[in-house]
Amino acid sequence: MRRVLTMIMLGAAVALSGCSTVDYGDAQARETVNTDFGSTDLQMIASKMVDDMLVFPPIVQLTQNRRPVVFVDSIKNKTTEHIDTESITDTIQSKLLNSGKFRFVDMTKVESVREQLDYQSESGLVDPNTAAQMGRQIGAEFMMYGNFSSIVKREGSTKDVYYKFTLKLMNIQTGIIEWANEKEIRKTQKKSLFGM
């Protein structure tokens, strides 16, 4: 009886879930569902920023014989949308790191690193010969930071969204901005008379 009840419940669950399928798509394909910020926008911004930075003559000279250390500060989201700006900077950071021209320190993990250093030096459970030493981390030379803003306009059935992403690289010691660039994106959507 219990087995029959289980089979009936399983059948009901399958019936209620419907006959939906999930397909994999090309993550690099152009995404044009609506005017909201999407994956295509993120990829365009990251490519533009990295490509521009890597060919900027002072940056080429700076990275010719060494890999400067950078930390990424948060990007200020000044849009009306909830946008995960960390995803944008993660992609930019990954591309720059994989170029072999830069190194990064992760300021979001400072507390976790401190806890691990304390554990290694104070717990008595770690061989002192293999424990990481306090005060040996390398300081960042540059800070990467920026802003993300938008202007949204509507008229009748038309919605126009202008996005502007600005990124800067500052020399921490001198306060001089060594590089800056921006990427602009405009998206327009017209709704049909029937709201489709």
TrEMBL record:
GO annotation terms (biological process): peptidoglycan biosynthetic process
One Gene Ontology CC term in the entry: periplasmic side of cell outer membrane
Residues of the signal peptide: 1-17
Organism: Alcanivorax profundi
A GO molecular-function annotation: enzyme regulator activity
A Pfam short name: LpoB
UniProt KW Signal keyword: yes
Record InterPro entries: LpoB
Annotated protein name in UniProt: Penicillin-binding protein activator LpoB
Keyword Signal: yes
Coiled-coil residue spans: none
Keywords annotated in UniProt: Signal
